[in-house]
């Protein structure tokens, strides 16, 4: 490759430069070095390696063509985790009050809080931690593996190797066990053991770990499909293996009818059966719903339904949060359900018996004759010989309470139900028997006599008596005597009351009332009362 064109002062300088390059190619001249002392490859064009003749030719002039902003303080080292620098023997001022280290305070201390800190006990002083500060460059800040120790991955490799070793040892023991069983069987068998030997050889072949087959499975990546998983135009990619055998016919080609089962090209699912009328023994695909309603899918569906129903009834169960707990509860539920079902069956069989297990009744008894005589009429109804059985009710029958000998409702009188044994119409009453019936009849007779006597007394009019009305409107007793002094005082009080009624200003603020009225006061009120029908009312005052 030719070098970059550079401006020279004359042809002579240009010729000297070409000779120098030829000598360097032949190894006769020392190689050209840059400012850092590194050899410059003449086959790679060194752009702007020398400045034009009109600028300073000693060093390049354009800073953006070189790594001019390089800080030597940048580093890619990492913290020395767990390193200690100094172990003190006594507590120092300013140190952590809990452990005694100088590199942190009590608030940032990572040790267990002591009952008495190192500040007061001056014992078990913790060493000072090594504190480092780094100034990372752009790449160092964004390096996710910065500070990672590759030697820590050795324990992961050891664990996997131990697992593989245990697996190989287990398979070897199984092969030896099968071989011993085969040898023990061959000792006591003759010609008939040929077919069985071949079967056991096949079993031994299945138990062997063929490393060649494993290598082939690792190399069989022709069916692997790399595509984006659950992303819309971006995101992480994943490996999706196409498990369909290429010799099988695609499900959307089984029935080309437009009105047949719908095929969703996005999810590659066909729920319905594309060939519902075909022979079930001949078709290998019956729709995706077949897998949902059979096998482990059906059991998983029942488990989900049980978890939902248990959660609705108050159980703290969640299928997604605690699947193991949900499955264990479902198993316990099925066991308890079977026990309860068998218990119910045993109870019914114990109560009513099991006709399937009982001995059959002989035909002589089933078709035999009896001495009972039954008479029928022309319509086929039983006239005599067979008592008709009354249909039983769902309510309690013939239950006698409170010492009664008959049920409630066995007696009716005056639109009331009652007991026939004692003729009482109160349901919760106790039975009084014949004595109660006699007392009830006597009370009835007495009531009728009283009613009749009252009716006869109402028919005869009572004699009118001339009664002298009392002074206050009631009957006047025969021995009523009025006191003249009290009557005079009552008349004066009545006059004062009437004057107060005429002039409201003379009425006192606190009026004390007396509800007790004497005969004299009532007589004074009657005497002072104005009768509107009296023709002399205008001359009273």
TrEMBL record:
<protein>
    <recommendedName>
        <fullName>Pre-mRNA-splicing factor SLU7</fullName>
    </recommendedName>
</protein>
<keyword id="KW-0508">mRNA splicing</keyword>
<comment type="function">
    <text>Involved in pre-mRNA splicing.</text>
</comment>
<comment type="subunit">
    <text>Associated with the spliceosome.</text>
</comment>
<dbReference type="GO" id="GO:0030628">
    <property type="term" value="F:pre-mRNA 3'-splice site binding"/>
</dbReference>
<feature type="compositionally biased region" description="Basic and acidic residues">
    <location>
        <begin position="206"/>
        <end position="215"/>
    </location>
</feature>
<keyword id="KW-0507">mRNA processing</keyword>
<dbReference type="InterPro" id="IPR039974">
    <property type="entry name" value="Splicing_factor_SLU7"/>
</dbReference>
<feature type="compositionally biased region" description="Basic and acidic residues">
    <location>
        <begin position="178"/>
        <end position="188"/>
    </location>
</feature>
<keyword id="KW-0747">Spliceosome</keyword>
<feature type="domain" description="Pre-mRNA-splicing factor SLU7">
    <location>
        <begin position="136"/>
        <end position="410"/>
    </location>
</feature>
<feature type="region of interest" description="Disordered">
    <location>
        <begin position="22"/>
        <end position="42"/>
    </location>
</feature>
<keyword id="KW-0539">Nucleus</keyword>
<dbReference type="InterPro" id="IPR021715">
    <property type="entry name" value="Slu7_dom"/>
</dbReference>
<comment type="similarity">
    <text>Belongs to the SLU7 family.</text>
</comment>
<dbReference type="GO" id="GO:0005681">
    <property type="term" value="C:spliceosomal complex"/>
</dbReference>
<dbReference type="Pfam" id="PF11708">
    <property type="entry name" value="Slu7"/>
</dbReference>
<dbReference type="GO" id="GO:0000398">
    <property type="term" value="P:mRNA splicing, via spliceosome"/>
</dbReference>
<feature type="region of interest" description="Disordered">
    <location>
        <begin position="178"/>
        <end position="215"/>
    </location>
</feature>
<feature type="compositionally biased region" description="Acidic residues">
    <location>
        <begin position="194"/>
        <end position="205"/>
    </location>
</feature>
């Amino acid at each position: 490759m030719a070098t970059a064109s550079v401006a020279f002062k004359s042809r002579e300088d240009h010729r000297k430069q070409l000779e120098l390059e030829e000598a360097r190619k032949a190894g006769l001249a020392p190689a050209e070095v840059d400012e850092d002392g590194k050899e410059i490859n003449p086959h790679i064009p060194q752009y702007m390696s020398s400045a034009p003749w009109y600028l300073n030719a000693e060093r390049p002039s354009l800073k953006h063509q070189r790594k001019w902003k390089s800080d030597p303080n940048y580093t890619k080292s990492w913290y020395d985790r767990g390193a200690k620098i100094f172990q003190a023997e006594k507590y120092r001022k300013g140190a952590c009050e809990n452990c005694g280290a100088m590199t942190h305070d009590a608030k940032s201390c990572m040790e267990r809080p002591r009952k008495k800190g190192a500040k007061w006990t001056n014992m078990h002083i913790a060493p000072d931690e090594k504190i480092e500060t780094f100034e990372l460059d752009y790449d160092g800040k964004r390096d996710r593996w910065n500070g990672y120790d590759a030697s820590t991955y050795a324990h992961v490799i050891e664990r996997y190797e131990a697992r593989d070793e245990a697996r190989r040892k287990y398979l070897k023991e199984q092969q030896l066990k099968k071989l011993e069983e085969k040898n023990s069987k061959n000792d006591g068998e003759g010609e008939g053991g040929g077919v069985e030997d071949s079967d056991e050889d096949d079993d031994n072949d299945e138990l062997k770990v063929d490393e060649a087959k494993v290598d082939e499975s690792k190399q069989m990546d022709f069916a692997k499909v790399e595509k984006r998983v659950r992303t819309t135009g971006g995101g992480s990619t994943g490996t999706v293996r196409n498990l369909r055998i290429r010799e099988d016919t695609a499900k959307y080609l089984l029935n080309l009818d437009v009105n047949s089962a719908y095929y969703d090209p996005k999810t590659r699912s066909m729920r319905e059966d594309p060939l519902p009328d075909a022979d079930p023994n001949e078709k290998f695909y019956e729709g995706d719903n077949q897998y949902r309603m059979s096998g482990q899918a059906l059991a998983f569906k029942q488990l989900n339904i049980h978890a939902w129903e248990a959660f609705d009834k108050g159980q703290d169960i969640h299928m997604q949060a605690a699947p193991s707990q949900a499955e264990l509860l479902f198993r316990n539920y099925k066991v308890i359900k079977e026990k309860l079902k068998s218990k119910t069956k045993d109870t019914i069989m114990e109560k009513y018996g099991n006709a399937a297990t009982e001995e059959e009744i002989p035909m002589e008894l089933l078709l035999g004759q009896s001495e009972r005589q039954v008479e029928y009429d022309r319509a086929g109804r039983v006239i005599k010989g067979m008592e008709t059985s009354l249909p039983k009710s769902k309510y309690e029958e013939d239950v006698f309470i409170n010492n009664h000998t008959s049920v409630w409702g066995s007696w009716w009188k005056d639109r009331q139900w009652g007991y026939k044994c004692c003729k009482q119409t109160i349901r919760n009453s106790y039975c009084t028997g014949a004595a109660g019936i006699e007392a009830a009849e006597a009370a009835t007779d007495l009531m009728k006599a009283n009613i009749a006597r009252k009716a006869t007394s109402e028919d005869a009019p009572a004699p009118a008596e001339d009664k002298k009305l009392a002074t206050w409107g009631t009957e006047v007793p025969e021995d009523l005597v009025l006191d003249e002094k009290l009557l005079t005082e009552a008349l004066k009080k009545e006059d004062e009351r009437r004057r107060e009624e005429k002039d409201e200003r003379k009425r006192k603020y606190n009026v004390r009332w007396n509800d007790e009225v004497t005969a004299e006061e009532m007589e004074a009120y009657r005497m002072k009362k104005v009768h509107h029908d009296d023709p002399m009312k205008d001359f009273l005052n």
